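User: Batch of two.

Assistant: Item 1 of 2:
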Amino acid sequence: MNDSDPLEIIKKMNGVVDAFYLDSLILKRIGEEERTVRAVGSIDVINEGFNRALKREKVICIIKDPRFRPPPEPTVKLMSDDGEVMGVEVFPETSKEFSSRDDVVWLSDNFVVFPGILPDKRSKEIFVMPPVPFPELNESNGCKDVVSCSPAPTCDKMIREWHGLKDNSKLASVLVAFNRINR
């Protein structure tokens, strides 16, 4: 183990309770589950971050507690299938950006919609979970094409059971995927 080992880098991060590599069998199982996920009102959910993670050589699962740093970008967007962003996740650090705006509607403490952006009548709404950067893994420690994502809650549960962990509502999982740089 050395300072450039991706798994060891992640394990040393604040708020990481556990971290481990996922094998192809569990990735296949959660991939099948991800394709069945729907939001309230039967709105489709596309976990683009997970789809891209499947195309990487290595996938690490992080089990994190609330001390773990927030993601650098929103992890959920409401979009029309013609590409219009109709809503976005909001973090405590970014809520001030939206609090004084009169062109947003707060659906919850952490999600706003833009009612002025209407999709084409032929379009439908979808929730997209985009790939999110994970700056701790990069070329300096032998990683490229790095993406992170949150799995669906049902997949989070499947991963924990597969790894022998008890369900705990105070914990959540994040997947970090990357390709190795040949040195």
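Item 2 of 2:
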Amino acid sequence: MYRTGTGFDTHVFCEERTLTLGGIEIPDCSGLEGHSDADVLCHAVADAVLGAIGEGDLGKHFPPGNPKYKDISSLVILSETALMMNNRGFTAENIDCTVICEEPKISTHAHAMEKKIADALGISPEAVNVKGTSTEGLGFTGRREGIAAMASVLIRKTSGS
């Protein structure tokens, strides 16, 4: 049995923080505002996985008001989401992600992001694809007010759980 899920996240820039995307720190860029490390890419992937297993959304499992998740690495959130997926007898077969921003240039960092995401999910980096796009100056990402990310996941049932 196969199932799919989609995820989407946005965060506004915050000059007081370091930018973390796909589990890696990107120097010389403003960070993102959020309760955790505000990694929009990991959040979109986690939301996609939760959707695929029918477990609601990120806010249900990692509520922003919970002090336990203050400044937590989104790779931890992604790992915990993967554990939920595995406990239900599924594994991720393919993940496709798009980061929507004017800066930074995603292609420069995509391979490292794919590896971090794959490691957090316990899958092969070849099963993860990260790409970037701009909105050519349109909308909040085009005005360089923040970053958005979306992700799609295909999961496969591996056991009778």
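The first strand starts at residue 2 and ends at 21.
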